[in-house]
């Protein structure tokens, strides 16, 4: 066996090793869809930075510019990260793709070998338009600069997002729910809840926090009833419902989903 092959084997955890989420403490952020996968399926996990006093070190250490990685793992660029045994992976959609088959949140591979790619496609689209773009609304110029330094640009970006991009993305998911692929319009794909539904729930919930008036208008229009019904369907799932009311759920604040002052939101 080559050194490379033996390294690869080292990062294949056995099925009983615990899942550890490494993400910034105190905000839902890009860690939330991962938490929702665990919560929905009743899978035990450790939310390291929120649960351990010095848990933040577990988040900062792997992304330290001097850290050249652990064993065969590629050094991660940013949280969220998932640790399981010797394996450490990052990038939210990549983590969802890893967890999907293990937690039963994608179609069975034998019955529908392409299903996982459709679920991934849907999750990526929701993350593009309902997570990454809302983040860029309040940070249109520089991720590392304060919102207050980019307020003028944020105002223009918010108006455009509310007018064009938000309805385009929510409208896309409404279209998906009407498609044959959805199988009935209850869930996005294959007539069964997948992690794409959890991502859509979280991202619409987050945008509803950040832009409540824009979302209220969309609800009133009656054009997106399928999407809003799906969001409520996820909210009322037994395990998710308990989680949302419990202590583990972090509150929205100044993360991806951030309320802008009313003067910044003429069009909302
Ligand atoms: N595309 C990545 C984005 C990761 C990301 O932007 N993480 C944020 C926290 S939500 C971060 O800390 N970024 C640090 C940076 O970009 O310098 C993903 O989906 O995981």
Automatic annotation (TrEMBL):
PANTHER family: GLUTATHIONE S-TRANSFERASE (PTHR11571). One of its GO terms (biological process) is glutathione metabolic process. GO terms for molecular function: glutathione transferase activity. Pfam families: GST_C_3 (PF14497). This is Glutathione S-transferase. Residues 18-107 form the GST N-terminal domain. Residues 112-254 form the GST C-terminal domain. The lineage of its organism: Eukaryota, Fungi, Dikarya, Ascomycota, Pezizomycotina.
